[in-house]
Amino acid sequence: MAEHYHFGGCDTVALAREFGTPLYVVSEDDVLARIREVKAAFDEKYERAHTHYASKAFLTKDMIRIAKEQDMGLDVVSGGELHGAMALDFPPERIVFHGNNKTPAEIAMGLDYGVGRFVCDSLGEIELIDRLAGERCARPHILIRVTPGVDSHTHAYISTAMADSKFGVPLPQVPEAVARCLGLKNTELVGFHFHVGSQLLKNASHLMAVDILLGVIRDVRERIGFTTREFDLGGGFGVRYTKDDDVRPIGYFVDPMVERIEAFCAEHGLHRPDLAIEPGRWIVCEAGVTLYTVGSIKEIPGIRTYVGVDGGLPDNPRPALYQAAYDAVVANRCDEEATEVVTIAGRCCESSDILIRDLRVPPLAPGDILAVKSTGAYCYSMASNYNKVPVPAVVAVRNGVPRVSVRRQTYEELYERDV
Ligand code: LLP
User: Fold this and answer.
1) 284 CA distance to ligand 1 centroid (A)?
2) What are 46-65's pLDDT values in tens digits?
3) CA–CA distance from 67 to each of 11, 48, 95, 97, 182 (Å)?
4) Is the dihedral of CA 94, 250, 247, 405 positive or negative?
5) Beta strands 230-232; 23-27: pairing state
6) Does 349 participate in catalysis according to the annotation?
7) Candidates 58, 162, 254, 278: which one to mutate for ligand 1, based on the most atoms within 8 Å of Cβ?
8) Which of 82, 180, 193, 272 has the fewest CB atoms inside 10 Å of its own CB, making it the most exposed?
9) Cα 196 to ligand 1 centroid, rounded to whole Å
């Protein structure tokens, strides 16, 4: 009998049969192992160092429960993400509220819940938070997100730290922003944040940003007398999508950053601020696969063979948006030799809906199950209903036991809000 592809201790063909396709499968054992790894490399290795999970990568109630139980912080960027955290009583002091344009209603929601810190991209937003905090007799902690002006050499759409970016306060404006913050009564500026970009396989841009921010920290101390108590180093640590991705352990990123920060603080007689990182993709990406059923197969002689699957752009917009590359295996015959090269086409009326170009596979037939790897991050969280395709179910597996974590959307639900 042909060999089946196992993931998280489960036979993926059996999962496809039981829960249908397309199907997101998340190994909670892998998520927990990643959390343990990042904590050992950061929270437990260094004093006053905390990991916040960037919830935008993958957010379900189960994932919020995991972050809560594992004593992680939670990075949220919207009222919707915050609502999930609130619904599950996520400790407010461990929530970090990001976003380049939080609405007054979202800020009020965060203030009323008592979120630990707001990371702000502009002075205008800090002033708005200050006003709304004043109305509530609250005094939230604020971090200024700084645009360090470094090029992170990732896809332009996930690069966030160049001078021309919608994110963060431009470097030259930071001292003025700090000075004005110190004049506000209802907010307490505690430090700085940067996030250089996402899916970075090299640490160079993180290190460059650290150096730049350390310069800022010293500058505002000398010129304005402001002592930085917190320094958030963002996320962006790269993972393996295909065998071409040369991934490194998390220590490759955090160790030299912390080393530089400690050396700088010692040299300049500064108190080393509390440190934070915000990985999203690194925690969940490789812990997820998506299962599809093969349908139509079209061979264009001398050109290419298109293999259609029952999902695509609606459950994973990343190839269309970022030319993201994925690897996949034929789950029901994973031991068979790959003798053909095909292109995996999504099901949408959209030429950009190509999941994988030039994938090496054994000869395929309708009904085969394809398992696309490393889909745990930014797939479910970016899913859409384009072409009125329902969002697939999320099945979580733990110790080889599967359970529905998010049930499949129904056709009725697609029109539920229509009047
Ligand atoms: N912190 C901040 C402030 C961020 O903006 C992000 C991601 C993270 C942390 C987490 O980054 P991570 O560790 O997951 O790389 N949709 C894109 C990724 C956008 C990331 C946006 N910000 C994708 O699918 O590649």
Assistant:
1) 12
2) 999 999 999 999 999 999 99
3) 27, 18, 11, 16, 33
4) negative
5) unpaired
6) yes
7) 278
8) 180
9) 9
